[in-house]
Amino acid sequence: MKLYTKTGDKGKTGLLGGRVSKDDLRVEAYGTIDELNSFIGKAVTELDQKVFKDLIEDLEAIQHELFDCGGDLANVMKERKYKLQEASIEVLEKRIDVLSDEVPPLKRFILPGGSEASATLHIARTVCRRAERRVVTLMNSTEDVPTIVQKYLNRLSDYFFAAARAVNHRLNVKDVEYVRGGDVFK
What we know:
The protein is mainly α and 186 residues long. The chain is built from five helices and four strands; from the N terminus they run E-E-H-H-H-E-H-H-E.
């Protein structure tokens, strides 16, 4: 199988059920999800297999779910069955709670960074937020979008924040507080 098809040479790309311009809002949304997935892959390579076994398992499951999100967004057929399910959001919420209980409570905002893997997870968090914004833009332009994708991305960005903090904590790297602001978390 060849990697190139030449079908996109005129600025169009295929969806499940049609073709659109490569700068279509739908393509932008699932393209940003693809970018996010790549940062997750980078984060996995930066995590020690023993210390972060649970996070690596989470992240690999998330990568599959992000492929589901992209496929669900790319599906414009009249009869659709979406892959992403509410159970994925429930799993994220449980993992956020577990990871949040592992770290000291926050009083102030923190700066992205610390360890290399934590910094990459913060990048994933911000790309996830951008992906969510792209999905919301798409949702506002058409009713033909599975809303669960936006909800999943919203929760996923929270997961990345919790995971980034847990990584630093397990590595005994302090989160750096934003010092120009006051206490915002009580």
